[in-house]
From TrEMBL:
Residues 238-397 form the W2 domain. GO terms for cellular component: cytosol. Gene3D superfamilies: 1.25.40.180, 2.20.25.350, 3.30.30.170. This is Eukaryotic translation initiation factor 5. InterPro entries: ARM-type_fold (IPR016024), IF2/IF5 (IPR045196), Transl_init_fac_IF2/IF5_dom (IPR002735), Transl_init_fac_IF2/IF5_N (IPR016189), Transl_init_fac_IF2/IF5_Zn-bd (IPR016190), W2_domain (IPR003307).
Length: 400
């Protein structure tokens, strides 16, 4: 084997194994809180795997709980923190197993295909099998928003090139680009599932059927209406009544009742039914009603619908306002979890860094009273500090 190269499957000892890649290299830069790990040959490694270099870099960040940054123009890929080469090579093996190797024959000659139902498939050119990746992994959200570009080969056919999708093609900035409705996978899934809707019996937490008699339903709805009226903040900048009969009150009550049995598609369809799927206030309402005290672990479940609805900075601010209400008014015991909550939304590319920073440095009485606002922002300081340190580190690199 050529010096500096290893088998893509490092568990294969066969020296005649033809699938090879450069040995992953690392370089530690900076010091203190600004220390970072640069991967100088990530582009070469990714090219051997036929994947965009941002994919394994982002995978490292997901697995290590670290922020990542990329500069494709100069092939610079960074994972914040000090990480030795051995650890990153082990993680690269995991990435290869999950997102490169065929699930059937374990051959690396695969392309990633994004289906209409928002699944990511490994299409194997060796055995012809198509196997799905584990959609529970956080990297899948990044891949769905940054699909590998299709490029023309010499014979005119299309293949997945190891390049990063531009913002106009679902890029990292989270903008709806390209203008092609054919790429709107969530909408397609909603339409395809609309004809297959079935009514499921309500099941209680103890496994027994919930009482669905008219009296019981009326009593539950009344309780929910009271809760909604007390918790939802409905500013007067929309054409709706400020009560449980408004579209926001309706979707809020529905979310509280159904959240254990619904997914992102169900939520978006309900918003469409009420005609509020594009409204920023819908985002605020859903943050307050879809989640429980286990919000940190629940965010990945509903991340796709927030990604779909997050079409402007105003929507992001409404989401942050919903978090203020959720934590500062309804779940004060979660104040210490604010950094984790923000991190989950940030890692899912739902909240952008500049919006979070602006929110964190400006006290507002729009969603909660001034004192509550200060409490929530005070609780968010560890996350805001983490963002600032990452930026300072990037500036140090630019000066070198």
């Amino acid at each position: 084997m050529a010096p500096g190269f290893v088998n893509i499957r490092r568990d294969v000892d066969d020296k005649f194994y033809r699938y090879r890649m450069p040995l992953l290299l690392t370089k530690i830069e900076g010091k203190g809180n600004g220390i970072k790990t640069v991967i100088p040959n990530m582009a070469d490694v990714a090219r051997a795997l036929s994947r965009p270099p941002t994919y394994p870099t982002k995978f490292f960040g997901c697995e290590l709980g670290a922020q990542t940054s990329f500069d494709e123009k100069v092939d610079r890929y960074i994972v914040n923190g000090a990480h030795d080469a051995t650890r990153l090579r082990e993680l690269l093996d995991t990435f290869i197993d999950k997102f490169v190797l065929c699930g059937s024959c374990k051959n690396p000659e695969t392309e990633l295909i994004l289906t209409k139902t928002e699944e990511i498939i490994r299409d194997c050119k060796a055995c012809g099998q198509r196997t799905s990746v584990d959609m529970r992994h956080k990297l899948t959200t990044f891949i769905l928003r940054n699909p590998p570009k299709k490029v023309k080969t010499k014979k005119g056919s299309e293949s997945n090139a190891p390049e990063v999708a531009s913002p106009g093609n679902g890029g990292a900035e989270g903008e709806e680009g390209g203008g092609a409705e054919s790429d709107d996978e969530l909408t397609k899934r909603i339409k395809s599932e609309a004809a297959e809707l079935s009514v499921k019996p309500a099941i209680g937490e103890d496994g027994w059927s919930v009482d669905t008699s008219p009296e019981a339903v009326k009593a539950r709805v009344k309780t929910l209406e009271t809760s909604m009226q007390a918790s939802l903040v409905l500013n007067g900048d929309d054409d709706s009544d400020e009560d449980s009969n408004s579209p926001y009150g309706q979707i809020g009550i529905w979310a509280v009742e159904k959240r254990a049995d619904i997914n992102s598609v169900d939520v978006f369809k309900k918003a469409q039914e009420l005609g509020i799927e594009k409204k920023h206030r819908t985002v605020q309402t859903l943050v307050q009603t879809l989640f429980t005290e286990d919000i940190v672990t629940e965010i990945p479940k509903f991340a796709p619908v927030f990604t779909k609805m997050m079409t402007s900075e105003k929507h992001q601010k409404a989401l942050l306002g919903g978090i203020e209400r959720f934590v500062g008014v309804e779940h004060l015991e979660l104040l210490s979890s604010v950094p984790k909550i923000l991190m989950e939304f940030y890692q899912a590319d739902i909240l952008q860094e500049d919006v979070i920073k602006q929110w964190g440095t400006h006290v507002s009485k729009k969603y909660v009273d001034k004192e509550t606002c200060k409490k929530v922002r005070k609780a968010s300081e560890p996350f805001l500090k983490w963002l600032d340190e990452a930026d300072d580190d990037d500036e140090d690199d630019d000066e070198e």
